[in-house]
Amino acid sequence: MAIPSKTIKVFEELLESPQNRLVEQAVESGRIPIGYSCSFVPEALLMADKLFPLRLHAPGLAGTELADNYLSCFVCSYTRGLLEFAMDGRYDLLKGWVFVPSCAHMQRLYDNLEYLQKPDFNHILDVPRKVNNDTLLWMTEELQMLADKLAHHFGADMSDVSLRKAMEQWNDFASVVQSIGDLRKKPNPPINGAEFHQIVMASLASPKDLILPYILDFKKEIEQREGIKNSRARLMLVGGHLHDPEFIRVIESQGCVVVADRFCTGTIPGFKTIDINNDSPYKILAEYTFAKTLCPRMMEDFDRRLNTIIDTVKEYNADGVVLEIIKFCDLWGVDAMPLVSALRDNGIPVLRLEREYCLGGEGQLRTRVQAFIESMGK
Ligand code: SF4
């Protein structure tokens, strides 16, 4: 059994609130939290000058009574959870929210927040649905428009120099998280999937510079560890928004270890570093954002999504894939059908799980994972 980490408690505590103590600390020092809820928003752009990005989540969401007055029960529980928290004042430190019309559910969330005037800076980043030269230009202009609005509204320095500095800061940060993630490739990884996701989610929900010292401490700690022995299977997790590490902990309670995170809030390829060249920062970030986001909203991009999963299974020596989909998520719901059969055609066992945004039905989840591991002869 891996030596429990002292530092992991810090990440647990930081995940208890959507506005944790590091966020409060940054706000007290005059910095500006900008919320976002989709991976097509490049964090580096929101790290310029006094701004910092905050991936919005709804930890401990008990119900969506308020949100259900505005959004139908067929809207995914992630968007209803965000609206509930927004209406309940759980994001009151937020100075701005950048949206992407990733799906109709997210669009409805935006409409209602505009209607409720929450917060006073709301921006839609109109991300195209295909990747080609024309849409690269379109995305470059969209990022420029966003930067101009941030500069105008908050007086933030969004100059090329400032953006390049922010991109370097992202790269320094992402490289550290990736270096911990790469340890999962080992036959006996010194870190399990639940721990790794605690770090990733806590870092997405905190100012990067303020959480980095804890991540470096944690890295030192686990480098002393022997590594996880006797795990029955190595699994890869694929899918949409996954914020709660407890979901992974329940999966791993069946004697397996999650070694790769190819989901919306995961690091593969979400924590890719930016190739900073002489192009305009907006073109660099446009290319980067298309490369690091693998979302079913994108047309003519299925093969890239499929091949990334197949390559990652090989790279992390995973025995099987768990595909997690939030109920009523039409993007992942539709993409899952061809994806599951294509992976099985490639000899990769797949377990498809439908879930709500908040963890529930742990018993059934354990049974499904148990049966899946046995079906692989493990
Ligand atoms: S989980 Fe699916 S439906 Fe919900 S916001 Fe994300 S993409 Fe949209």
Summarize the structure.
The protein has 378 residues and is an alpha/beta fold. The chain has helices at 8-14, 21-28, 77-87, 104-115, 133-154, 160-181, 193-204, 208-223, 245-252, 281-292, 302-315, 330-345, 362-375, and strands spanning 32-36, 51-55, 96-99, 122-124, 233-239, 256-263, 320-326, 350-355. It is built from 13 helices and eight strands.
CATH topology (level 3) name of the domain at 19-157: Rossmann fold
Individual helix count = 13
- Spans with pLDDT under 50 lasting ≥5 residues? none
Strand content: 5-15%
- CATH architecture field of the domain at 19-157: 3-Layer(aba) Sandwich
Note the overall shape: globular
- Cα-atom radius of gyration: 20 Å
Helix content: 40-55%
Name of the top-level CATH class of the domain at 19-157: Alpha Beta
Number of strands: 8
What's the rounded overall pLDDT mean?
Answer: 95
Strand arrangement, major sheet:
2-1-3-4
Description:
It is a single chain. By secondary structure, the chain is an alpha/beta fold. It has a domain at 19-157: Rossmann fold. The protein is built from 13 helices and 8 strands. It has a 4-stranded parallel β-sheet with strand order 2-1-3-4. Helix 7 (193-204) runs antiparallel to helix 8. 49% of the residues are buried. The model has no long low-confidence stretch (mean pLDDT 95). The structure holds iron/sulfur cluster.
Summary tags:
4-stranded parallel beta sheet, Rossmann fold, 378 residues
List the helices and strands and how they pair.
Blueprint: H1 8-14, H2 21-28, E1 32-36, E2 51-55, H3 77-87, E3 96-99, H4 104-115, E4 122-124, H5 133-154, H6 160-181, H7 193-204, H8 208-223, E5 233-239, H9 245-252, E6 256-263, H10 281-292, H11 302-315, E7 320-326, H12 330-345, E8 350-355, H13 362-375
Parallel strand pairs: 1-2, 1-3, 3-4, 5-6, 5-7, 7-8
